[in-house]
Amino acid sequence: MRALITGVSGQDGSYLAELLLSKGYEVFGIVRRSSSETHERLTHIRDKIELIHADLLDQVSLSQALKRARPDEVYNLAAQSFVPTSWTQPVLTAEFTAVGVSRMLEAVRDVAPNAKFYQASSSEMFGKVLETPQRENTPFYPRSPYGVAKVYGHFITVNYRESYNLFAVSGILFNHESPRRGFEFVTRKITDGVARIKLGLAKELRLGNLDAKRDWGFAGDYVRAMWMMLQQPKPDDYVIATGVAHTVREFADKAFQSVGLKYQDFVVSDPAFYRPAEVDLLLGDATKAQKNLGWKPEVSFDQMIQIMVEADVRRLQDTVNRR
Ligand code: NAP
Ligand code: F7E
């Protein structure tokens, strides 16, 4: 089997590439050209996958990548994925995260119409939620340019499935985290901050809305669900979530506690990190995925925090030791 992953250099792309390699796939990954191609999340598997230069903005490059990879499965994970940036760069977010999906689907339709296609949709599409918990048929009410772009990506995927009979699925994934999460997302910002404070490298951690609630899972569990969706006899859309929500405050509390500290002594509220429109609560119901795919999460909330804090302490300790 051959798979092509867009966004292979991101958090999910790196875990998915590992999973597919372990299943004997030939893995091809799309990366965009950069003056410093480090791809840190791929270092350990760099010699096992083939990287192809292409960009979601460039239709021809996507078609060429598909011609080179000749994939049985295509995972479209590339996007501008940070919600606050979607207010400062709304047009670019729409180009990558919304119209980029059309470009990928057109390339698949033209070059590899028999390939199965996965679209990385998001719980941010539920936004100002109209129902709790949120499931596949809960109406969308996005609250950011990112959420709006993801709604486009979701429906264009459904539309290509219905218009052209493509095997195209949309996975509506709730927040998922890991030691490979980008540093700007709140979970990684907290675990990195905890590690810095514990090692004496920082004195405080500035955060925004501590009362926002999220249904947080572990990225390794979530990429397994992506693969499972493409192994089904029929293409369909699935919510992937743990079914438990926690506040940002609870996350911070547990992360600081795990190194024997109290979050109240270090967390500073900073209006700079509040959003123009907030998503107050996301809580998913993954019953359909449990029933049809046999999927369930394996890493708990507490375990995930422990894994992330330990990884950040280890990483920063190594840096300090090298000085
Ligand atoms: P991420 O770490 O931000 O990775 C995004 C990837 O997209 C990176 O590899 C990035 O490349 C690539 N990319 C961005 N713009 C591109 C372009 N114009 N052309 C080609 N590649 C481009 O995101 P993630 O957390 O792994 O999430 C993966 C996908 O799932 C995203 O679509 C995200 O929106 C969606 N999602 C994430 C979550 C979550 O909780 N993590 C939940 C639901 C949905 P560079 O390395 O060059 O920047
Ligand atoms: O924020 C609050 C913030 O940036 C979570 C992306 O992967 O998941 C992610 O989007 C919550 C928000 O993730 C800070 O206001 C408080 O309510 O970690 P986040 P997100 O916006 O939920 C979805 C499913 C995706 O699809 C996205 O691609 O935490 N919060 N203080 C903060 N958030 C940040 N980033 N920084 C703070 O200091």
Q: What is shown here, in short?
A:
The chain has ten helices and 13 strands. With 323 residues, the protein is α/β, with parallel strands linked by helices. It folds into two domains: 200 residues, Rossmann fold; 90 residues, UDP-galactose 4-epimerase, domain 1.
Structure description:
The protein is of the alpha/beta class. The chain folds into two domains: 200 residues, Rossmann fold (3-Layer(aba) Sandwich), CATH 3.40.50; 90 residues, UDP-galactose 4-epimerase, domain 1, CATH 3.90.25.10. The chain is 41% helix and 15% strand. It has ten helices and 13 strands. Helix 1 crosses helix 7 and helix 4 runs parallel beside helix 5. The longest helix has 22 residues. It is globular and about 55 Å long. The termini are far apart. Ligand F7E binds next to helix 6.
Radius of gyration: 19 Å
Largest beta sheet, briefly?
Answer: 7 strands, parallel
The number of helical segments is 10
Class inferred from helices and paired strands: alpha/beta
* Overall form: globular
Give descriptors for this structure.
binds NADP nicotinamide-adenine-dinucleotide phosphate; Rossmann fold; two-stranded parallel sheet; 41% helix; alpha/beta; binds ligand F7E; UDP-galactose 4-epimerase, domain 1; 7-stranded parallel beta sheet
